[in-house]
Amino acid sequence: MGENQKPLGWSYTNESLNAVLAAFRVHGAGVIDKRKNVLAVCGSGDIPFALLEFARQVVVVDNNPAQIDYARKRADYLLKGDYAHFVEPQSEGVYDGEKYCPFLPNKGLRDRYFQDRETIDRIKARLEGLVFCEPQDVFTFLENRNQTFSAIYLSNVLGTFAGNSFRDFRRKMRPVSKRLSYHGRVFMSDADHLFPPDIHWTSLTWHNHLSQEQITLMNKVLKGILIVDKEATYSSRLCELPTWSPIVLTK
Ligand SMILES: C[S@@+](CC[C@H](N)C(=O)[O-])C[C@H]1O[C@@H](n2cnc3c(N)ncnc32)[C@H](O)[C@@H]1O
What we know:
Layout: H1 17-24, E1 37-41, H2 46-52, E2 57-61, H3 65-79, H4 83-87, H5 96-99, H6 104-115, H7 117-125, E3 130-132, H8 138-144, E4 149-153, H9 166-178, E5 180-188, H10 197-205, H11 212-221, E6 227-228, H12 230-238, E7 247-250
The structure holds S-adenosylmethionine.
Residues 9-10, 13-15, 41-44, 46-47, 61-64, 67, 137-138, 155-157, 162 line the site of S-adenosylmethionine (SAM).
C-alpha cells in the first residue's frame, strides 16, 4: 500500500439495507424502476449491489480507491458464480467501525439478504448496469457528470464524522439537487449530527424520531434546492438503528 493510500474501511454495510430500500421505494411508489439511474456511494458495495436489482443503472463513486477495488472484486466473484466470496470477500483487519457492535444487526440483515440465492441471481443478471467510476469526491463528481439520477445514496458522507457542518450543507447539496430528477430522492445517514446540539438532542430523546423543528430547519437551509420527504424518512427510520438517523430529501 502506498504512503497516501487509505486502507479498506468497510467490508459490509454499517447501515440497514432495508432502510435504503424503504427510502427509495416507499409503498411501492417506485422512485426506482428498471428505466431509472441511481447514484450510490460505494463503501463495501452492499448498497449498490442491492439497488442494482431494481434500477437500470447504478453508478458507483467513492473517494477511497480501496473501496472501489473491493466492490469490483466482489462483482468479479459474482460473475464467476463464487457466491461465498461475493458475500464475505474479506473482513480480516478491516476497520468496519472497529467492529462496533451497534452495527451488527445490520450485518445480520445484509448476510441474510445476500445469502438468498434468488436475490443474488437477479443481481448477477443485471451486473452490466453497474458502473464503477474512478475514485473521487461524490460532490465533485455530481458537479461534473452530465446525467440525472432518480435516487442518490449518500451514506454518511455529510455527517459530522466526515468533518461536515450544517454551514457546509447547502453548498454540498447544490450539485446533488442539480443531478436529481424531479420527485427523485436523496438518502443520507448520520443526518442528525448535522443539526445544532439543542435540536439534535430532541431526536435522540424521541428515539429516532425526526422532529418538526428539524424538518423546518432543514427545509429552511435547503430552500429552493431540496425538501425533506417526511413519509420516506419515517419509513426509512423504521428500518434503521437510531445511530444512523437517515433523512430522505426530494426535489
Ligand atoms: C460509512 S462508509 C459506507 C457504508 C456503506 N453502508 C457500506 O456499504 O459500506 C462511507 C463511504 O463513503 C466514502 N466517502 C466519504 N466521503 C466521501 C466523499 N466526499 N466522496 C466520495 N466518497 C466518500 C468512504 O470512503 C466510505 O467508503
